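Suppose you are handed a protein chain with no further information: no name, no annotation, nothing but its sequence. What can you learn? This example shows the usual starting point.
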Amino acid sequence: MAQYVGILDGSGKVWGVRIPDVPGCHGGGPTPEAAIADAISSLREFAAHQKSKGISLEPPRTVREIIGDKTTEFNPKAGEAMVMVPLILDRGRPAKANISLDAGLLEAIDEEAERRGLTRSAFFTSAALDKVGRAS
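A reasonable first move is to predict its three-dimensional structure. Written in structure tokens, the prediction is:
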């Protein structure tokens, strides 16, 4: 999975993440975590759009390369921070996975999925995307 460098800035209830290697791709939200999650979603959607046009994204640069590039205008003195933004691409096909869980946990998952009107698979997918996004 490719990881793009994002630059997080903001304060209070206004936060943003810009991705220097993908001009125009950014995320925002009321917290740093929400801004990062939005940036992950934006990157995913942007990459899918580009792919549909037959255009590939440039490969991500390293943190060191981003810091060394004056055009990125990274300003840690102003409170900006580097964050990693994973590129999670849809492959357009489902894949089966055999997992083992405690029976009680599986019952709780099924109950919560039903409460939300989701299948077990949709619930797992949503939870996994949320977790991957927060781990960045």
